[in-house]
Write a structure and sequence with these properties.
With 324 residues, this protein is of the alpha/beta class. The chain has 11 helices and 17 strands. α4 runs antiparallel to α5. The N and C termini lie far apart (66 Å).
Length: 324
């Protein structure tokens, strides 16, 4: 294994009770990489992540971490190399935020679990990194699902492992907290040199924030590349083909498929207003065309239909067009 490789998978098959869900996988992760694992529901993302850290026994093949086979690494040694945050958090209802984060230091303490000054510093830093200082003394039972998610990521940080694996880390977060978390994870990878592998259903988040992705399809094959590559080579479009929706390769957005879209022309000097106005018009069945008979002009804060009425807001214009 080259010196910069942290994890390498050869001819791997994973599944349950000798039934393979994914087979013959060859994958590798270099130190310091940040990788998003994507794929349809039920495609085996969680099964793969659990198998990579030894929670599930793999059926065939080989997993190496730092050049050593995972089945030859003792559990206490492995827990110093790899940490994982699953969607199922277990029963920690009687613990505070700080109590849970402290659990991350267990692999590094003596048999009595005594914390040294260095351990306390790492716990404090992990809580601060995840912006949890204001709730550090609160019980887990008092927190929102999104806050609990961040607490367990802080615990993984306190574990101070080379590789951090996260199963759907943004599931319970609103858009602002999703962006905050992704920014934190990016900084952890860049500034602390941590290697991150996480699964996600959020294509737009991967497109904006992730430099590399593994894309799992229905056949169990994993493609490796950048989200942008999957967009312009058609891989994403093929994987998520639907009779009602399509993936726009220009914008990276999933759009409703209109059977007979109407053509519309929009004249607007403000490129930002024009872009988002057309975005809204697409949703009600219109597409932009230079020579369209229906022509809209935006000026002085109003939308005006050529030869017709003016509208003070985009929502009023959309309502008029939907009724026409």
């Amino acid at each position: 294994m080259p010196s910069n490789l942290l994890l390498e998978v050869k001819n791997l098959s994973v599944g349950y009770e000798k039934k393979a869900i994914l087979s013959k996988l060859d994958l590798s992760i270099s130190k310091g990489e940040m990788i998003c694992l994507m794929g349809p529901n039920g495609s085996g993302k969680s099964t793969l992540l659990k198998s990579l850290v030894g929670i599930l026994p793999f059926l065939e093949g080989e997993i190496q971490i730092n050049g050593k086979r995972i089945d030859k690494i003792k559990q206490e040694e492995l827990s110093k190399i790899v940490s994982i945050v699953l969607t199922n958090k277990g029963d920690v209802q009687g613990l505070t935020v700080e109590d849970v984060v402290r659990l991350g230091r267990f692999p590094h303490t003596n048999r009595f679990g005594k914390l040294q000054r260095s351990d306390r510093n790492i716990i404090k830093e992990s809580i601060e990194t995840m912006n949890l200082e204001s709730i550090r003394e609160k019980l887990i039972s008092e927190l929102s699902d999104g806050q609990v998610q961040k607490v367990f990521i802080a615990r993984a940080l306190a574990q101070d492992t080379e590789l951090i694996i996260l199963d759907e880390p943004t599931t319970y977060l609103d858009i602002a907290n999703k962006m905050e978390l992704m920014s934190i994870l990016t900084n952890i990878s860049k500034e602390k040199g941590k290697t991150l592998l996480f699964s996600s259903h959020d294509w737009s988040l991967a497109l904006e924030m992730c430099p590399k992705a593994w894309l799992l399809d229905h056949s169990g094959t994993i493609s490796m590349g950048t989200p942008e590559e999957f967009l312009f080579n058609g891989t994403m479009q093929k994987l998520f083909m639907n009779e009602k929706f399509f993936l726009n390769s220009s914008s990276g957005r999933f759009c409703e498929l209109k059977s007979t879209p109407k053509e519309i022309y929009l004249d607007c000097e403000d490129s930002n207003i024009k872009y988002w106005s057309l975005h809204a018009l697409e949703k009600i069945g219109f597409k932009y065309a230079e020579e369209a008979e229906l022509r809209i002009y935006f000026a002085n804060g109003e939308f005006k239909i050529e030869g017709g009425k003016s509208f003070k807001s985009l929502s009023d214009l959309l309502l008029r067009l939907k009724l026409s």
